[in-house]
């Protein structure tokens, strides 16, 4: 059976959903999602009756795309409470100093936090103005040369690890932190960071009821046709357009499209592009990904120690714990706390790029590892009443040094092919960046009409 469609979007994460929503205003759009449900890494579930996000849980508020989309869809945008995040460093929970992804705004605040040793702090104070060649380098190499390795180990690593689940000495400055590259080109990082004006605008935003409401609302807006459980297995050019093979190998279905947008993770996009844009496919196939797991733990209120004023904490790899962060969802989000009814829900995250073996454990083992680390750090000694483990295999694309050039190569190979790409592999992994990527790809998809 062959059916004709104007535009087919492959992948129903926030990128594909946004693109389909935008394009669906003026075009006939079909969205094909391989799994049983849309949302990708945006997923809200109930744990012990409490609704919580088990994937992404906050989006940058200082970029407009995420909050604008949520508001357009009529969703209640909220901000985290004033509870502050900490960092587990040198055997204690310390205040997380304000920084630009680890480059401190205020050295006195950094000193008071105790995050660095006296030697590390002394080295950070003596910034070395290494010449900026303009070539891409890793964030870790750049900051270590300027401010010393300890700033990387204890500030940059946990912050970058939280966003990319990657390693500071591998992640591209241009792709992940272009502001830092611009600052390095201009001069002292410390002087420029110290001059960043204070702002009352909240850094993060969320959606009451969970970020999983965003995909639901995009589907409910009804601008496109949706098919779930529709894995796209092949893509090829045919006279006058493109043809997709969808469904099981035994009973495949063929769909025709004028344009195709691939909003899948990079490995799937690379496979699908093999026949239509081999150079783009080859470039995308080299993008690594990190696998992560999120455990959600529901405790009776009376079973938790006093965690007042804390929204969670980050853990640098150098500390040797299994978890890399814990978010006290009940303290961070009023709506989670309000729905708790005598229960407090928090989550831990585990897994970094290159450490896939650390996740080769049963769910019970990941929960046990999380509980052991929570006991060692914040003194939680009681057992949770319910737990949930969400694994995200190959979830976070790694922006290695040279990533921007790689993305340019992917896009160059697609010119004139009728295929566009968007999603977390290209213009940033955070939700606002992914939404921006989808909007740009949508404009490009119809630009040549
Ligand atoms: C645990 C975790 C926590 C995060 N926390 C945050 C956060 O707090 N804030 C933030 O801004 N970002 C966060 N991120 C990052 C952000 O959530 C993701 O980068 C973003 O959601 C990715 O969206 P996407 O649409 O590009 O990809 P995905 O969400 O991966 O969606 C891709 C979709 O394509 C489908 N697909 C794949 N192959 C095929 C195929 N062949 N045919 C059909 N469909 C296919 C998949 O099933 C999936 O639904 C987090 C990520 C993870 C994993």
UniProtKB/TrEMBL annotation:
One of its GO terms (cellular component) is cytoplasm. Its main location: cytoplasm. Keywords: Cytoplasm, FAD, Flavoprotein, Heme biosynthesis, Oxidoreductase. It catalyses: coproporphyrinogen III + 3 O2 = coproporphyrin III + 3 H2O2. GO terms for biological process: heme biosynthetic process. Residues 14-444 form the Amine oxidase domain. It is found in: Cytoplasm. Pathway: Porphyrin-containing compound metabolism; protoheme biosynthesis. Its cofactor is FAD. One of its GO terms (molecular function) is oxygen-dependent protoporphyrinogen oxidase activity. Its EC number is 1.3.3.15. It holds the Pfam family Amino_oxidase. It comes from the Bacteria. Involved in coproporphyrin-dependent heme b biosynthesis. Catalyzes the oxidation of coproporphyrinogen III to coproporphyrin III. NCBIfam families: proto_IX_ox. Belongs to the protoporphyrinogen/coproporphyrinogen oxidase family. Coproporphyrinogen III oxidase subfamily. PANTHER family: PROTOPORPHYRINOGEN OXIDASE. This is Coproporphyrinogen III oxidase. It comes from uncultured Nocardioides sp.
